[in-house]
What we know:
The protein is mainly alpha-helical.
Amino acid sequence: METSAAIEIARHTLLSCGLILAVGTIAGLLAQKIRVPDVAVFLVAGIALGPQVSGLIDIQAGSPLNEIVLLFGASYILFDGGASMRFGVLKQVWITIVVIATAGVLITAGIVSLAAHYILGIPLIVALLLGTTLASTDPATLIPIFRQVRIRDRLAQTVMSESAFNDAVGAILTFTVLAAATGSGQFSMAHAIADLVRQSVIGIVAGAAFGYLAALLIAHQRWGFLAQYAPVVTLAAVIGTYFAADGLAASGFMAVFVAGIVLGNKEAFGFRMGQDELQKLDDFVLTTCFILRLFIFMLLGVQVDFALIGQYWLTGAAIAAVLMLVARPATVFVCAPPDYRARWSFREMLFMCWTRETGIIPAALAGLLSGMNAPGAEMIESITFITILMTILIQAPTTEWLGRKLGLMQPGES
């Protein structure tokens, strides 16, 4: 009996998912044993399974499975990260978050663009495309790291919140520059700022509305009739929030993060969950985030193209070094000190300088530029992957070490 093409694709996909789950579980255990964030080990494991090494898994970046994993995985991890935020902490540091997530992205993009212009000898407009693509940090990478590395709440929540809000800024800047590069528009800072404000307001309102609705349905004394189905409600809330914001041309990622903040701070609205339901929800979220994190970073590793990266590995490494060692420190030391309410210490700012991992958000932007045949798209995609590899494999494993050296671990974790 002949097997249809659809069944063959399904069998191949199921086998690939099984391998990812099996290898990823072992990789997660290894990461726990050697005390490094698991995203770095997942990335290496994905490379080992991919077509460039063993050839056991070959899932393309444009495949439906990969797109679903990236879209839903990043959204759910952001939702979980938002749920860990506390209003009391955010009130102390919101100025720093806003400044780094806006002006900070401009500073980073400017420094990286100038470096790319001189190192690669490319036109400034193409260098700007690269700079804006790399300018935002990645919440899907940073949130899991701070779930495992117990840095002081104020510092961890600032870095996570910044990463959640700056992806919209990076995307807006990238497509504004692209319009100028392709002759379909002119670079307009006023237009970019207006677009950012519009997206932010819509994203925050949509996220707050869906987060409040989810809290109402699972934790309200009278209306919380879905309390026993709280895990399912969170899944529906993440999907609904993302598409509501996206349908209104706002940042879906920003919206799901805000929804998580509202749900995570439900007590502030007078909502309470029973201890059993709360424990069930916490266990579900913990397991779901682990599985999604595992898939995201192993698939990212599977898709590493060494032939493409090999063309730009030296200059790409130089630009990544500028990003890590020049652009990020300049951003932090310009944007954080003016926030007198937060009173950041030198050690805290030094730690912020080292936590700017690049991951799926810049990778998605680079992929979109490639699909649009943007000027220098192949080069941008290559250097973006080099930067992802360097930041995740160098910065992520050393986060806990640096936190301990600087005395910034939570009490009992030193």
